[in-house]
Structure formats: C-alpha cells, structure tokens
Amino acid sequence: MYTAFTELSPVMQAFLAGLFTWGVTALGAALVFLTKSFSRKALDVMLGFAAGVMIAASFWSLLAPALEMSEHLGRWSFVPAAVGFVLGALFLRLVDMVLPHLHLHNPIEHAEGLPSTWQRSTLLVTAITLHNIPEGLAVGVAFGAVAADLPSASLAGAMALALGIGIQNFPEGTAVSVPLRREGFSRMKAFLFGQASGMVEPIAAVIGAAAVLWAQPLLPYALAFAAGAMIFVVVEEVIPESQGSGYGDLATMGVIAGFTLMMTLDVALG
Length: 270
Fold this sequence. Notes:
It is a multi-pass membrane protein. This is Zinc/iron permease. It comes from Nitratidesulfovibrio vulgaris (strain DSM 19637 / Miyazaki F). The protein has helices at residues 2-6, 10-29, 40-69, 78-98, 120-147, 155-182, 187-196, 200-214, 219-242, 248-269. By secondary structure, it is an all-alpha fold. The longest helix is centred in the N-terminal third of the chain and has 30 residues, at 40-69. The radius of gyration is 18 Å and the shape is globular.
C-alpha cells in the first residue's frame, strides 16, 4: 500500500491525506453515538492537545523547512518565512472578520463575523471549519514540497504532518457533535454536523499541493503562510477555549503533550 501511495501524484497524495484527516474528524464526531454528554475537563485537555500539535507542526513541519529553503539569501533568509507567516495570519484574520461563526460554549449573541441569520449549529460548524482550512493547506503544501525534491522535505515528513493533524482533529469532531447532542439534536444530525467541519481539508490540501507545483519558487512563502494561519487559529480560538472553564492547568499539560507528540513524529519520521 505504501509503495502504491508513493507512486501517486503529489496532488492525489495530498487529497488522500486530506481524506484521512477528515475521516479522523468524523471518528471524533462519532463519539456522539456513545454518549450525550462529555466531560468539559476532558474536552479542554483534548483542545489543549490539539493546540500543541498545531504549534509544533507550524514550526517543525512548516517554518523550519521554509527557513532552510531560503538559506541562499544569506542574512535575508528570514524574509520569505516572515512574509508568508504574517500573510497567513492576516488571511485568517480577514476570514474571521467576514465569515459568520460562533466559538464553542458561547451564546449565539456572541457570534463573530458579518451579521447573519444562521442557526447556532451552522455557526459552530463554521468556527471549526476555520481551523481546518490552514490544516488542509499545510498538508497539501507539505506533499507539494516533496515533489519539488527539496532536501528539507520528505514523504515521511509529509505523512507525519498528516498523521499529527489527523490526531488533533479527533477532539475537534467531538467538540462539535457532543454539544449539539446536548442541545437536542438527534445523534445522527449531531454527527453529520460534527464531521462536516472536516470536509474542507481535502479541498484545501489539493489547493495547497497544486499551488506549490504551479509556482515552486513560492514554496517557502506557502509553508510559512500555512504556519501563520495555524498559529492564528491556536492563539485566537483553540487555547482560549481550553482555558475558560477552570481546567487551565490540565489544558496546558495537554498542549505540552500535543507539542511533544508532533515534534517526535516530525523528527523521527521526517
């Protein structure tokens, strides 16, 4: 199976990796079939874990390769990474300002983005979908980098990134489906909403891989762009949500565990 995967085009590899990360989101959402309630303490720890994975992936899988690819610029080697990182954060900030969405556990009156008449469930799914855009882009860019035959990029590293993002998608699926079940949704409807938040990842992965193959000189910028977008999501949403219910210390340990796991995966497999 591994050999067959290596023979696929980078875009198809990215698409399959995106399907995997979406599938883990659906697996997390499927917990709604087992329980109607979920410990807020456990949820905060899982969100912290997800944040740790995203932070580690942003550096080890994205920023570090971007810096390495720019070493030929000498003292200016930081420029592509810095520019791409800032643009990624600004892009997510713009989307955050425009797209109607609602953070977990907030009343609908606190919905962000442009005013809308969307239901609470739709706003919640939209918020989690914002997480998954940069994650899908990161996976796609990583596989595109492998096709560019760059020494800092490897297929094992790209697969490790997809695995890490998939692992942290599990609590995100749970974080949508279980609260919706508590609000009176049927188990099936809560599951469908929960897994829907991951549907954007295969699409974003294909876009990321195709963009890199189309314009390889932009690869350092693209890697840093995905990193900036992910860090924006972590700081603006994931960590604050994990710290808001009195379990901040446990959530922080979740961050440490997630960071350590993703760092280990990237270094050991990359």
